Amino acid sequence: MKAMVLRAIGTPLQLEDRPDPQPGPGEIRVRVEACAVCRTDLHVVDGELANPKVPIVPGHEIVGIVETLGAGVSAPVPGTRVGIPWLGHTCGHCPYCASGHENLCDEPAFTGYTRDGGFATHVVADAAFAFPLPHCEDPVHTAPLMCAGLIGWRSLTMAGESRRIGLYGFGAAAHILAQVCRWQGREVYAFTRAGDDAAQAMARSLGACWAGSSDETPPEPLDAAIIFAPVGALVPSALRAVRKGGRVVCGGIHMSDIPQFPYAILWEERQLVSVANLTRHDAVEFLALAPQAGIRTTTTVYPLERANDALADLRAGRFQGAAVLVP
Hints:
It comes from Labrys monachus. InterPro entries: ADH-like_N, ADH_Zn_CS, ADH_Zn_typ-2, ER, GroES-like_sf, NAD(P)-bd_dom_sf. It is a single chain. The chain is an alpha/beta fold. The chain folds into 2 domains: 2-146 and 297-326, Alpha-Beta Complex (Quinone Oxidoreductase, Chain A, domain 1), CATH 3.90.180; 149-274, Rossmann fold (3-Layer(aba) Sandwich), CATH 3.40.50.720. The protein is built from 9 helices and 17 strands. Strands 3, 4, 5, 8, 9, 16 and 17 form a 7-stranded mixed sheet that branches. Strands 12-11-10-13-14-15 form a 6-stranded parallel sheet, with helices on both faces. The protein has a two-stranded antiparallel ribbon with strand order 1-2. Strand 16 (299-303), helix 9 (307-316) and strand 17 form a beta-alpha-beta unit. Helix 4 packs across helix 5 (172-183) and helix 4 packs across helix 8. The radius of gyration is 19 Å and the shape is globular. The termini are close together. 49% of the residues are buried. The model has no long low-confidence stretch (mean pLDDT 97).
């Protein structure tokens, strides 16, 4: 197999030839068809997430074909197309797992962070955390659903039954979530970096009723806001934009420090919450909903060996939607 490997934090990934991995008990080996590039991969490579397993093969938005089953695995059968997300394994016995909050597991494994991921031709995954994709006809356009879509969906669930939704940072997650919101009949307000006309135009093309820069005030108070950009300064901005009783959801795994802000913008029962990881229930629910909502992802394709270019372009905001690596 071939893999793009992070040997040391802050260094470029290296293309390596490796023996094909063999699945252990409860695992499967998957031939990767496509792996989307997530901002979390940047956080891993740049050292913004603590204690990654190095060397590591990044990538956790994987679509591929099951090739080999490990001991004790009967499904998914070889030949099945599956999606493999960020959450790669849970202990199953800690208080969080026992209470239906496996996304907060005390002993988790994460694809592309603590176990090798999908920037490769093959990957080994826990069979219980690989999701059949019977409706998938295009692996490239499906790959971003496995994190941008799933975390977007969990974030929207945390936002509740809000009608006016603000999306801060109109990248991979927001361009998927905007389509879900419009399908559900919600109003979408898109916030981008100042001067990012392309992102604002894309937001409008996907049904946003308003698009502007993140320092602007929306024309109507928001019921909820979801922050995907890893910028702590957006938290006070979003709190000012939501109505009394509104909620601000931080949807990323990493964010710069949140600046001091006056209590007055949190008062009147506004809420500030975060989203961590996902559950298998989230995945089953969202992957069933996605074809009903008619979600179409906007993608820029890179060959596997250009993974460093994809990461650099994501860091610089040089494309709309999601980057996807294809072996």
